[in-house]
Amino acid sequence: MKQFIDIVHNRQFQNIALSQLFTVFSTNLLLPVLPVYLKLRGFSDGQIGIIMGITAIGALTVRPWAGLRVDERGSRPVILFGQALTALGLAGFLWANSFFSFLGLRLLQGVAMAFYGTGAITFASSVERPENTAGAISLYSVATMVGLGVATGSAPLLYDQLGFKPLIILGLAAVGTAAAVMRLRAGFIPPCPAGERVPFSSVARSREVLAPTVCLFASNFAHGTAFTFVPLVALSEGITGYSVFFIAFTVAVVSARLGVQPLTARWGAERAALFASLLNALSVLLLAFKASAAVLALSGILIGFGFGIIFPCLAVYVVQHSNPANKGTALSILSASGDIGVAVGASVLGVVAEWLGYKALFAAAAMVVLVCTYYFYISLFGGRQEALFSSREKDCHNV
C-alpha cells in the first residue's frame, strides 16, 4: 500500500495518469455506439467491421516508427503529437457521411493512437525507480481502464439521450484537457544515449518481446471482436440492454488492474498473463452460445478480468527484459501486435459473420486466442508443467 501511495504522490505519474484517463475516454466514447450508428445508416456488417478494424491498421503502420521517435526524442513530444491527431480525427466525425469518410477518420485515429499510446506507456514506465515500475504501470493501466470503462459504459446511454454529435464534442473536450495537462504540467523525460540502442530487428526477434506480442495479439483479437459485434448481436436478438456487457467489463477490468501489482509479485508477470489469456478465450467462447443479458454480463466480467490483467503484465515483462535504451521500441512492437489483433478481429471476422453468423464468429475467435496462448506458453515456459505452477516468485531483472 505504501508503494502505491508513493507512486500516486509522484507529480509525473499524476500527469500521465490524468492524461491517459482523459485521452482514453475521448478515443473510446464512440466505440460502443459507432457500429450501431453505422448499422442504422445502412452499412453492412462487413463494412462496419472494416471501418472499426482499420484503426488498428493505421496504428500498426506507424507504431514501430513511433517507438523509434520515443527512443530518440523522449516520450512527451510524441504524446502531444498523438493527442493533436486524436482531436483532428474526432472533429472529422462531425461531417463524415460516407463509407470512405468514416474509413479515413478511423485510419487517422489509429495513427494518433500509435503515437500517443507508445509515448504514454513509455512515459509511465519511466517515472519511478525500477523496483516500482510494475506498480507504476499497474496504476497507469487503472487510469486507462477507468477512462475506457466510463466511456464505454456511459456512451450507449448518452447516445440514446443526446445523439451522435454531442458525444464527439464531449470527446474533443476530454482530449483537450489531456493535452493541457501534458503541455502545461508534465516535465520532459530525456531519452537514453543513442549509443546504447540495438537495431530494431534484434529487438523484434527476441523471445522476450516476440512471445508477449503474440499473447497481446490474442487479447486484443478477443477484445476487438467482442466490442465490435456484441452490440450487433444484441440488436439482432432484440436485447435492448446490451450496455450490461460494457458495464460488467468496466467493473471487472478496473478491479483486475488494481490487483496487478500483487499478482505479478506473487505469480510473475508471464504466469498472470497466461491465465488472463485463457479468461479472454473463455469469454468469447461463451458468446458463441445463445445471447442473453446474463450471457453478455458474464462474458463482460470474464473479458474484463482477462483484458485488465494481461496488458500491464506483458508490459512489465517486456520492460524488465528489454534494453532500457530500446524501451520505446520494445513497447511499440508489443502494442503493434494488439493493433493487429483488433484489426483482424473486427474486419476479417465481419466477413465470417455475414457468411456463417455470429456464433461461428465467436467460436473462431476463441480458437485463435487459444492457439496464440499455447504459443506463448511454449515460448516462455518450454512446456514444463513445474514452470507454470511453481510458487516461487519470478526472477526477472532489468537488462
UniProtKB/TrEMBL annotation:
Listed transmembrane segments: 21-40, 46-66, 78-96, 102-124, 136-155, 167-188, 209-233, 239-260, 272-289, 295-319, 331-352, 358-377
Keyword flag Transmembrane: yes
Name of the protein in its database record: Predicted arabinose efflux permease, MFS family
A Pfam family per the record: MFS_1
Keyword entries, A-Z: Membrane, Transmembrane, Transmembrane helix, Transport
Major facilitator superfamily (MFS) profile domain span: 12-384
InterPro entries in the record: MFS, MFS_dom, MFS_Exporter, MFS_trans_sf, Sugar_transporter_CS
One term under GO cellular component: plasma membrane
Source domain of life: Bacteria
Annotated compartments: Cell membrane
Recorded topology in the membrane: Multi-pass membrane protein
GO molecular function ontology, one term from the record: transmembrane transporter activity
